[in-house]
Amino acid sequence: MKKFFNIHGFLVLLPFFVFSLAAPVAALFTMKYPRYVKYTDDYPVICADELEEIFGSYSLGPLREDHMESEDGLLIRDSYEWQITYHDTCGREIECTLNNYETLPVQQFRWLRKQIEEYFCTEYVTRFFDGLIQHDKHKTYCFCRVGRICSSWSTNSPESRSAYDIGSDYEDRLMESEPPIPLYKLSYTDFLDRYPVILHIHITLKDSVYSQDSWKQEAGRLLQLMGSQAAKDFSGLLNLKADISRSSFEDKQTLSYTCVMGRETETDFFLNYEYAVFEAYKGKFW
Prior knowledge:
The chain is of the alpha+beta class. It folds into two domains: 32-101, no CATH class; 103-280, no CATH class. Helix content is 42%, strand content 21%. Strands 1, 2, 3, 4 and 5 form a five-stranded mixed beta sheet that branches. The chain is globular and about 85 Å long.
């Protein structure tokens, strides 16, 4: 009877078999599997005392389930959220969302930013430009940062990188350990005095309100009035860069008002403005 197994041939072909199996086996060990996380903590009960310190008297909406999948598919999260309604020191009704997958210090700074942004949009943008602006969150908005003043840095400026790192470290410390902030009773002057804050307002005018020849003069006058009034209201504490434009015009020109600690200034680049604010806070926060 013939033997079909050839040991010499097997040994010759063995490396090829091993090599052909290596890639699939390696893929099994390096394959990334989705991580599923479910949060079930009842925050309104667990954090009842802290929430009262933050919001005072507030109303709580029903529990809502929230499902999130990351774009790369590697994280799947199920959690709970609740809508909270409260009033600020001016009597304005404010809504925010409480979730149970982030710590309260992290969430309260998001609520603080939202409260400041809504206040400035209502009290200044709407007050001075009512009926003239495009009400679209991508065209007319107020953006606020607390703690991390510089949003980026220049590779040609070690000072700007240092400012970014210092502000980021300061923000991280706030998010980790800041006690409850009484959002319902602190005045906005107290907010700006208590934390390093930088504001950016962008306004887009309706196409029909001014002619192309007159809009710079008319809108520039209102922008100056709005900025000057806000700086006056906050007694040397306001850091604001406000821009106004009309997107339909071919020149795409933008008018700006800038103040650092309530003093009007001129900066030709947004990074320069942020660095000027960072410098103004030296000795107080860093």
